[in-house]
Amino acid sequence: MDPFVYYSRSEAETAILGAALAEVLPDGSVVALSGTLGSGKTRLVQAVAEAAGIDRRSVVSPTFVLAQEYRGRRTIYHLDAYRLRDEDEFLQLGPEEYFEASGVTLVEWADRVARCLPPEFLNVDIEVTGAQSRRFEISAHGESYAGVVGRLESRFPPGGSNPFPTSGVR
Prior knowledge:
- This protein has 170 residues and is of the alpha/beta class.
- Helix content is 28%, strand content 25%.
- It has a single domain (8-133, 141-154), classed as Rossmann fold.
- The model is unreliable at 159-170 (pLDDT under 50).
């Protein structure tokens, strides 16, 4: 399945994507977030958490604590691999417990620990395209996430009711 590409022109549009993600992700989902420093990984996690009934102001990058747990209508596990020396250090966090939990696990800087991720996950690559604009490429790793990408894409039909079309916006 081809990846779904979403162009955001603002934090508000990123929040719309995060809310849509929260709706289509089943319990037990793992989301791998990759992008440069300041690309919007934490902002996307905040939007997913907010849609799950969690005050977004309480969601901060777990760079120093490495893992945060937020409880709302569903549990959000927020991991950050930025400061880790290697994959062994990530494995010491016990990520498989998060990956097997019933909430949604989001991993920032997932590209640094790619070999530690479960066999199936949703991948979100974020590219900075301007001061406030971002390009999100969302792809499935494994059959169980193909449906997630399809459901997400159906919420933003090209030329349809999407207030933020994904084509032609740079």
